[in-house]
Write a structure and sequence with these properties.
124 residues; alpha/beta; 4-stranded mixed β-sheet; globular; disordered N terminus
Length: 124
């Protein structure tokens, strides 16, 4: 029996299959509509997001990162996408892993994000 109801996120991502594929790697929060609207305007981020998820898994293997879109309330055109790595780990341990991730991969790749992507820890 197939489900007839689609969640608002499913409806949104079905309009863009590449964005929909990100559901395999990322969680979406209450800014999901903003994320889905943001990504087609910044499609250069899609391959980077897939690669980032694979690299993140090496350092945070039990973590499904969260995509969050932030819009500057003073300038609606100023948007940025965040990959948030939720953790309950000790602060120093989580930051050490983040530093390793940054030194191993992110610092070499972040220019491909053109200032529109940031990766950080979200302490739960």
């Amino acid at each position: 029996m197939s489900r007839k109801y689609k969640s608002p996120l499913e409806e949104l991502v079905n309009t863009n299959s590449e964005v929909g594929e990100l559901e395999a790697f990322y969680q979406f929060d209450d800014s999901a509509e903003q994320v889905v609207a943001f990504l087609p305007k910044h499609s250069f981020l899609l391959p980077l997001l897939v690669e980032a998820a694979q690299e993140i898994a090496k350092f945070f293997p039990n973590n499904q990162p969260l995509l969050h879109c932030f819009t500057n309330p003073e300038d609606k055109e100023d948007e940025m996408l965040f990959i948030l790595l939720g953790t309950t780990e000790d602060t120093s341990q989580a930051l050490h892993k983040l530093n390793q991730f940054e030194e191993t991969w992110w610092l070499n790749e972040m220019t491909w994000g053109k200032g529109k992507l940031s990766i950080d820890i979200n302490f739960l």
